[in-house]
Design goal:
By secondary structure, this protein is an alpha+beta fold. 25% of the residues lie in helices and 17% in strands. The chain is globular, with a radius of gyration of 28 Å.
């Protein structure tokens, strides 16, 4: 064979195999320069099939498998198709879509950790980056130490998947789901009619497994004895997914169980009202939950988003492509939804929030003020076991006696409540502090997986494991920066200096906050009380010890709070519909104003809140116990309408244009308008009493010079020269300028990763490469939800 013929033959062989001219997408469709460019224009021999990943972004795949799609241009291409995984023929894994024989799907397993190549002989190739089932995918080095569950087979807490069968009883007195015995089927199985009109026995299969070193669970309404594959799911499934969450805010160092209850343990549900996840199953939805989506177990936004990402991938690979995903939850469950929707848009297509907070950090700011004020007012209650009835009684019994501040200044209960900004301020503050803030932020508090001997103690074990949530979030906020010793900005405590390393940064600050200013202007407190309060209130150190100095935020923690999304700027939340449910605030640390913070921030950033529907009612905290189920149906109708809009209209506009007429604000079931704020008991916070704006995101204010010309109640009070001088000394660095954005405010950056190519932490995160919307996550109408939020370098 002469040289010219050999060259022609070699060229034809390269074309048939894809060769080095095939396209490689390392992050959702952008050609990888290291693997060549376009394999050829339409109609060429190596462009007769297209290959894409359905279950996740190709660069974020985990657990060694992935659902892919191959679409051929004709039947001949199907016959000739060869699919290769790292040059191994895996064509047998593909199945034809029963509705489209030119579309083939399959779960490709056996992926190695790291880069893998999926290729075809007559189409494009993909680079798929696979991560361990124990993670991390994008969160950075694992939090240590970590205690796995009994039954784990390795240090990453992996364990074989377990399946259980459950059913709903036709006996209305049997609430919830009961164990279903396959060998001895019960005779009281209820029937259910799905939203597509199919009537089936109410039998549910539960999958329990472990990913990211923690538990996940999946519930599916299932026909016993009938196959279910991701290519051909059972007919009763409507391809909708409901994700449940958990409340509170903690940083455990061990595995836990996924939660499914409506109110996440925050408040008891009504046993006569069906849990919304059971209602969803009966309508044909699937339900997913992970332990790390329980904020009371894992108060780290990046780990929550990674857990949801991995669990959704697992779901799609086992059960099939999704139309959309909806979150639901109360308290910490609302925090998780709001933060993920803003920082990792696209993981949810709809939010159902109840007893709402917008995020971790604005809540922590309010509760930090509570903590500091409680210490000033000398309101001390043992918080070692804050959730016992005895503690709550102690709180209430001490209210009447908590009238003398630690500097000896008397304050009545009414005056204290006015400074807190709440009708029930003392009780609200003490519950928030003892049950939420102090336990979450105290490094010496309990946390799962860490023994008393291992835990931090500032006297006996200063180098021990710190159980506070700020340490748990260190990949996001960073350590307290150390400056040269001669620099007055050196913030290290003596413990840190002795240990030789810094603790996690404290993003919060109260510098310049004029506590009780509105109460002074209204004549509720006197100039002497205002002066004593602001002169002596001080702050706290990283171990929550009271300090004489005001609390100044650490860097880079303060800007990182906004950047990472733990302080929710809302700037990326116009691409998700929200139904928020609110009831009157009884002073149980779940102020109804927190839900309004979400609404008001949307209005500030977008000029409207048309993607936010507010349901109010008279049941404390939640509005109405039926709202959880009703909002599920309402959200489905809203998302169905968006799904049907296949135009090129941006998603944010589709959400507004396709909102059903009957999905609107309501008060006690009466549609058309929100409940009056007075009825919902919308109160303020210590910062709004100090003059702050209503948005609740002033983690630390910008400062301006103190001025005697400001309103200090001169109409009702006489200030002495010594008083003015004391105030000027107290606010020597300035007072809050509430007309400006908070100090270091910046837009939340979407889709941050916290590890580099070597697996080392990237403090504060680095934005991932833009990628196509994973086709299996949701219907095409919801695609590219995070694209507007990409930040350019």
């Amino acid at each position: 064979m002469n040289n010219k013929i050999m060259i022609v033959v070699f060229t034809l062989l390269l074309a048939a195999c894809g060769g080095s001219s095939s396209s490689s997408s390392n992050s959702g469709g952008n050609p990888d320069p290291g693997n060549g460019g376009d394999p050829g224009g339409p109609g060429t021999v190596d462009d007769r099939v297209s290959l894409q990943v359905l279950s996740n972004r190709p660069d974020l795949v985990s657990a060694g498998d992935v659902l892919i799609e191959v679409v051929a241009e004709d039947a001949a291409a199907v016959d000739e198709l060869v699919l290769l995984r790292n040059n191994t023929d895996v064509t047998q894994l593909l199945q034809a879509d029963p509705d489209n024989p030119l579309r083939l799907l399959g779960v490709v397993d056996g992926l190695s950790v790291g880069e893998n190549t999926l290729s075809t002989n007559i189409g494009n190739s993909l680079t798929v980056v696979n991560h361990p089932s124990g993670g991390p995918v994008f969160t950075g080095p694992h939090i240590q130490p970590w205690k796995c569950q009994d039954g784990a087979v390795d240090e990453n807490c992996n364990q074989p998947v377990e399946y259980r069968w459950l059913y709903k009883s036709s006996n209305s007195l049997q609430g919830g789901l009961q164990p279903y015995d396959m060998d001895n089927p019960p005779d009281d199985v209820a029937m259910t009619t799905t939203d597509s009109g199919e009537t089936v026995p109410f039998i549910v299969r539960q999958e329990i497994g472990y990913q990211a070193r923690d538990q996940y669970t999946i519930f599916t309404l299932q026909k016993v004895g009938e196959d279910w594959t991701p290519v051909q799911p059972q007919s009763q499934w409507n391809r909708r997914l409901l994700v449940t969450h958990g409340g509170n805010c903690r940083g455990d160092h061990d595995t836990s169980s996924a939660r499914t209850d409506d109110y996440a343990g925050t408040i008891p549900g009504n046993p006569l009202i069906e849990q919304s996840y059971i209602t969803a199953l009966g309508l044909g939805w699937s339900v997913l939950s992970t332990a790390q989506l329980n904020l009371g177990h894992n108060c780290n936004l990046s780990y929550q988003a990674e857990s949801l990402l991995m669990a959704k991938e697992r779901f799609i690979e086992q059960y099939g492509e999704l139309r959309y995903t909806v979150g639901t939850g109360c308290s910490g469950g609302a925090i998780t939804q709001n933060m993920i929707a803003n920082a990792y848009p696209g993981l949810y297509q709809g939010l159902l929030t109840t007893c709402t907070y917008p995020d971790v950090m604005s809540t922590a700011t309010q509760f930090a003020d509570y903590h500091i004020l409680l210490k000033y007012f000398d309101f001390n209650v043992d918080t070692t076991e804050p959730n016992t009835p005895e503690d709550l009684i102690a709180h209430l019994e001490n209210v009447a006696g908590a009238q003398i501040a630690r500097d000896g200044t008397p304050f009545t209960v009414t005056q204290q409540n006015a400074i807190y900004g709440h009708l029930n301020g003392i009780v609200n503050a003490s519950l928030a502090d003892s049950a939420l803030f102090a336990e979450a932020v105290d490094p010496a508090s309990n946390c799962g997986g860490v023994s008393a001997e291992e835990r931090f103690d500032q006297d006996t074990n200063p180098g021990g494991v710190r159980c506070d949530v700020l340490t748990f979030m260190q990949n996001m906020i960073g350590e307290r920066e150390r400056f040269p010793a001669e620099d007055p900005r050196d913030r290290w405590s003596q413990i840190e200096k002795d240990l030789g390393y810094a603790f996690s940064g404290f993003p919060l600050g109260n510098e310049g906050v004029q506590y009780g200013l509105t109460a002074l202007q209204q004549g509720i407190i006197s100039p002497a009380q205002f002066l004593a309060l602001n002169t002596n209130i001080g702050g706290v150190d990283p171990s929550l010890n009271v300090t004489e100095e005001r609390l100044k935020p650490d860097y880079p923690a303060l800007p990182n709070a906004y950047r990472t999304g733990i302080m929710n700027t809302i700037v990326n939340m116009d691409t998700v519909p929200i139904i928020n449910m609110t009831g009157p605030d009884p002073g149980a640390a779940h102020d109804s104003v927190h839900g309004y913070w979400v609404r008001w921030r949307l209005e500030r950033e977008f000029g409207h809140r048309d993607n936010f529907v507010h349901w109010g009612g008279l049941t404390p905290l939640v509005g109405d116990l039926n709202y959880m189920n009703q909002s599920l149906v309402a959200m489905a109708s809203w998302l169905d309408a968006i799904e049907a809009d296949t135009s090129d209209t941006p998603l944010a506009q589709k959400i507004i244009a396709n909102k059903p007429a009957d999905v609107q604000d309501q008060c006690n079931g009466i549609p058309g308008e929100m409940c009056p704020e007075e009825l919902m008991m919308v109160f303020g916070t210590p910062r709004t009493v100090a003059g702050a704006d209503k948005y609740g995101d002033q983690v630390q204010c910008e400062l301006r010079p103190f001025s005697r010309n400001d309103d200090y109640g001169l109409g009702n009070a006489v200030w002495q020269e010594s008083d003015w001088q004391a105030l000027e000394e107290t606010f020597a660095t300035g007072v809050c300028d509430w007309t400006k954005r908070p100090l270091e405010w910046q837009r939340t950056v979407t889709w941050l990763k916290y590890q580099d190519a070597q697996g080392d932490v990237i403090t504060g995160g680095e934005q991932m490469t833009p990628a196509d919307f994973p086709a299996g996550w949701a219907s095409p109408a919801f695609a590219k939800t995070w694209e507007p939020g990409w930040q350019q370098p």
